[in-house]
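Forwarding these from the shared drive since the link keeps breaking.
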Amino acid sequence: MSVNAAQRPAEDLYATGQHRVDEAARFLNLDEDLHAVLREVKRVFQVHFPVVRDDLSVELYTGFRVHHNLARGPAKGGIRYEPHASLEATKAQAMLMSWKTAVMSLPFGGAAGAVRVAPEQLSSRELERLTRRFTTEIALLLGPERDIPAPDIGTTPQVMAWMMDTLSMHAGFSVTASVTGKPVEAGGSVGRVEAPGRGLATVLMHTMRNTGLALEGASVAVEGFGSVGATCARLLAQAGCRVIAVSDHTGGWYNGDGLDIDALERVKAAGGHIGSGGVPGEPVTRDELLALPVTVLVPASVESVINADNAAHVQARIVAEGANGPVTPAAEAVLAEDGIVVVPDILANGGGVTVSYFEWVQDLQAFFWDEAEISAQLERAMLRASDRVWAYSAHHHISLRAAAYALAISRVARASSARGIYP
């Protein structure tokens, strides 16, 4: 039996999350005891489980499921399959989900999960066995009224379908509301795949209007041309923006006149790399992309992309966090000094969990909406949340991030206080 271990520890993002809570608690003059509760996770569940590989060898994997706070409803959060997944990073993601669901006014608490695995190194059968075994290991936490997982980095709608089917086999009947982000054929919602990018584009365009910036001709750079970044880029281009640079793990591509986003998406869909041919432009590195003098910069890949080492090089007017935690606190201080507006992740990328909420509701009611209704409801939810954050920011003369966190944490604090302490 071989052991699948992390090759390096992940950055301690949990400390950053606690730092954000501490700042908001001081601003809100939060009760010390309640502050102490909100800056820690409620529950940590770690599992070690074997999986039979196709060659009949057995490999041991490590997985996590973390609940941060459940005062506002059942736990909601993604499952990541990452080779360097860590408990600390999973705790940070769970805490972030509490604030994200609260700022979006969704009736959920925060959760996150992960398995330490490189999914691309597994066959489809191995991936299914790993998913079903991990689901079984954490099943005592899961359910439509308790904890509803969703896809995240390294997981897909197919993985969610396997999770739902496993829970349904345990229950003896179909429990479609037990996970979200499933294929439409298995109880998923139309519009769910594009929801994070669509919500991001909606909030970003709202931010541009609020800062007096015109959409037509505005230059945009997208770091992380995956599902979220590509959808956002396409919608911004359709709105009249000029997307001049994109990048992913394979490299980057630049065209000062504007990239053909549809063509780039076709290249990726066919298995090609950005800049592998057929799209006018030239190569650009991620560092070069982050330093471009653009109207809007969208970091949409992973955490801590903009940090103390490169923040001074950022020349964008607006930085919209398409990923979770792409701007570190030290970097944000530098951006603030330069007058750069940062749209925080708990607002900017709230579209995914919002349509996950729609999916959960549709599964519980066995009544499904069409895509036009999903898109309209998502736009209303994103604009409502953005309006409230902007109004709070203006009223208190604080940053958008400080406003979003203050709103979210105050909502969770009020729910926790109203429920009291049991017993």
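-- next protein --
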Amino acid sequence: MSGGDQAIEFSKLRKILFPIKAFEIKKALPMGMMFFCILLNYTLLRNLKDAVNVTATNSGAEVLPFLKSWLVMPSAVFFMLLYAKGSDFMSSEKLFYVTVGIFLLFFAIFGWVLCPNLEYLQPSVETVKRWQASWSPAFHWPIAIIGNWINAIFFVMSELWGSAALSLLFWQFANQTCKISEAKRFYSFFGLLGQFSLLAAGFIAGVANRIVKGGTQWVVVLRWLMVVVVCSGLIAMAIYRWVYKCVLTDKRFYDKPELPGIKKKEKMGFWQSMEIMITSPYLGLIAALVICYGIGVNVIEALWKGQVKLMYPNPNDFNAFMGRYSSYTGLASIVVMIIGGNILRTFSWFTAAVITPTLTLVAGSTFFAFILWRDSFVDALARLGTNPLAVAVFTGVTILILAKSTKYALFDLTKEMAYIPLDEDMKIKGKAVVEVVGGRLGKASGAWIQALLLMILGAIYGRRFTLIELTPYLLGTLIIICSLWILSVRALNRKILAVTAASGSHAKSN
């Protein structure tokens, strides 16, 4: 890179919106578009998996903790084992195609084969009701999952898409191919461009809602939404191929002797990688951030989705509302991304990283407090022409939009920057363990807490319990987890400063 390139200064507006040098557009824009496609699928699938499971007959938001703890977590471990094994004999490029291809194949089969034939493949509604009536109330919600087992599998694959394609494959590729100097500018741009996918997902969900109200069956709309998911995934694969062959061969963008994953060398085994991850304070602290985020948001989101189902019991209306939620999250994220990118460039890593847990703690506690004492506001809300359910949904969606927007704008970017100092093998296997298992462990831990409480209280009192009755326990969990999250950010900041200082000293000595 020439000295002239290094001397370029951006205008104030460009520094905020597009801090990319002219020659870097060839690298930054395609990677940003790949992030857009992957995040579009993530958002569409996140909304759909909740719509088809929460609104199913005999089901409810209470099935979510059981799905995440009993099914998603074991599946994430299995996926991580396969991914780590595959990384030993496949290049990073081939591993990307195989992993994404498997997911897209399943979503195509779900939309065009499984979903249209649910009545023939799943137990009847009457059968499920009979099972629920004959077993202990502690098993009411697990039986609901068995009765909707195809939707449950779709839930698992949709959850794993977020961990595999977004958290693992894309960010691993970015960390392998971007320098720290590029990451400070590129990553905020990726995030900003990616937020427009939330707007696109909300628009697509709105179109689907109008089609159904026009007379088309929900299953037909779901089928075509899977077409959108598959096409978006194929576009992401095509962009990846182009970047790999046309961008990374340009020494201005990637100056290592071999392309990522092509150089043949002896690699660590999975269990050796796991041992290093467990015994590495650095990786352990990154894992703590991921786990704490998963637990904190999960305990808020599950209760909120229960309120959303009460307001929108129809699956299409539920999905349309979640689409609007995604759009509002995208708009908020764009604003926060602009602000966050400048926070990341202007202030310390710690300042940028501590905002998300602090906001989650304050806003989440406010939501739980309203749920606990909302009966006290019934008369006052009635005079304002509303009710506690509507306010609970509005309050929850506002809080989650704030939490998700800061997550996309600050949490993800600071977390990914923390991986850059690691060696190449630990960027692959260590990141796989932290992101896939750690991310799932965070959500599963929050889900386990809720699932165990639902089962234990149901067995003790001999009746079916709901999530709203767990509010005091969930509030206590949120306070503890967010406090640990903030402490982990502080400890990781010290590690990053130490590694950066050591790297600087080593460079000077050379």
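The radius of gyration is 23 Å. Residues 1-8, 263-267, 506-510 have pLDDT under 50 and may be disordered.

- D.
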